[in-house]
Amino acid sequence: MVSTDIETAPAQSLNHVSSRNRAIASLAQHDTRSGLPELNDEVPLIGLIDLDLLDRLFLELNTGFDVSGMTLHAVACKAAPIKSLLQRYASMGAGCEVASKGELELALTSGFSPARIVFDSPAKTRAELKRTLELGVSMNIDNVEELDRVDQILSDLDDPGSRKSTSVIGLRINPQTGSGEIEALSTASRTSKFGFGLADPGSRAAIIQAYLDRPWLSQIHVHSGSQGLTLRHAADGISQVVALAQEINDRSSRQRGTVKQITRIDIGGGLAVNFSGDAITPSFADYRQELEALVPELFNFDLVTEFGRALLAKAGTIVTRVEYVKTAGDRKIAVTHAGVQVATRTAYAPDDWPLRILPFDSEGRPKLQGDSAAHDIAGPACFAGDLLARDRMLPLLKSGDIVAVPETGAYYFSNHFSYNLLPRTPIYGYFGDDEQCYVQIRRGQTTDEVLAEASA
Ligand SMILES: Cc1ncc(COP(=O)(O)O)c(C=O)c1O
Q1: Is 359's C-beta closer than 6 angstroms to any atom of ligand 1?
Q2: Distance (Å, rounded) from C-alpha 380 to C-alpha 390?
Q3: Is residue 93 part of a domain?
Q4: pTM for this one?
Q5: CA 43 to CA 337: how far, in whole Å?
Q6: How far is C-alpha 341 from the geometric centre of its chain's CA atoms?
């Protein structure tokens, strides 16, 4: 049995905890002036985003990493492909990392200039490569066949002797340093589907030759994985790639007198998030320190970062009404409206993606005291594994109570799963200290829209 989720938050994080509590109370009490919807039969589930925290985390990334002023912090679109959030990042000077045609177009319409977008998909089609190169979007090439295609497209685009594309182009390297705790998110295993394996026989020499043959390759990329990766593991992968970049630069300067062929290192994202409490740790500054200690040469290059989860997870909360409470065996089961449609990873891989459950009464007051019991927190979908939490010790829940699920700002609202025709979750943002304000971030799906999707 997992112990209760009610915890005493460390002092430095009380701000975002009390903001979250206020937003939940406004929602529960349906303050009509707030602009928040009522949590009712029509809308029994909504997402909340703490916009102040989102801004603060981006600022912390900037202060944690910027050394030369040449760092491009490209927010990973996949974590939250939501236009108003991307527009907010664009206005703060961020870039955007994309991995599909849809994400690329969303980034462009959200206000990122092509030079601030990085395209990373492992399955780029010819048409996507051509558009990327014509636009001048940066890209990381995943494999040898993709490199051949880029050679071809560039030679079609360019006049002899003059480059037309302004894209900054690199190869994605898999340092093959091994998996982290979550296999499905580990991209540095020996057989990962991503990038050029660095440790495979003959591979290092082939990668170096590929750079020497193509002076326009001026970037190198590594992303060893996401959640479940220690700072040291990520830093190890980066140090291998920095050593490789230095070797390529030494060789190209000897061969051609080029001062520095590789000028930019893209270190990917992957900073892990604390899903077991309110503390925001490790911080971007912690990661920077680890990198300074292990691979100080990294900071001689321009940098790209591609963080998603560490920028967004802590800012998001799923809020749902408890529809029924029942008992089966010795277990209390709180049936809510938040399940696999909004927490797909948690429903299918609960051990990898445990979430906290914060109980509130129907007025939005935290339920901190009283008798407690082991609960399952169930979703609305028709399969037995549709649970947000199992065997969780919580104050006794009853129908009409509210359940909040923090740490869900990244990869939850983006992973909508339309099983049972459950609609996409509406999202509202909140900001402000004394007087909290609310804005709609994304509309929920209406029943008509769900029907249209099923009928097209
Ligand atoms: C290439 C690449 N960059 C960045 C990210 C973002 O990772 P995170 O959200 O863990 O920071 C991912 C995640 O899948 C990725 O594959």
Answers
A1: no
A2: 15
A3: no
A4: 0.94
A5: 9
A6: 18
Can you tell me the mean pLDDT for 103-107? 98
pLDDT recorded at residue 69: 65
335/292 same-domain check = no
Rounded to 10 deg, the angle between the 231-256 and 203-213 helix axes is: 50
pLDDT tens digits along 270-296 = 999 999 999 999 999 999 999 999 999
* Whether residue 322 sits in one domain with residue 287: no
pLDDT, the chain, mean? 92
Query: Where in the sequence is the domain holding 247, given as residue range(s)?
Result: 120-307
How do residues 145-179 score in pLDDT, each as one tens digit?
999 999 999 999 877 667 789 999 999 999 888 77
Cis peptide leading into residue 122 (ω within 30°): no
Decide: helix, strand or coil at residue 402: strand
Ligand 1 atom, smallest distance to 226 CA: 10
Give the number of the atom of ligand 1 that is nearest the alpha carbon of residue 411: 9
Give the start-end residues of each E strand in 13-92.
Answer: 45-50, 71-76
Q: How far is the CA of 151 from the centre of ligand 1 (A)?
A: 26
Q: Which helix (H) or strand (E) holds 106?
A: helix 101-109
Give residue 64's pLDDT.
87
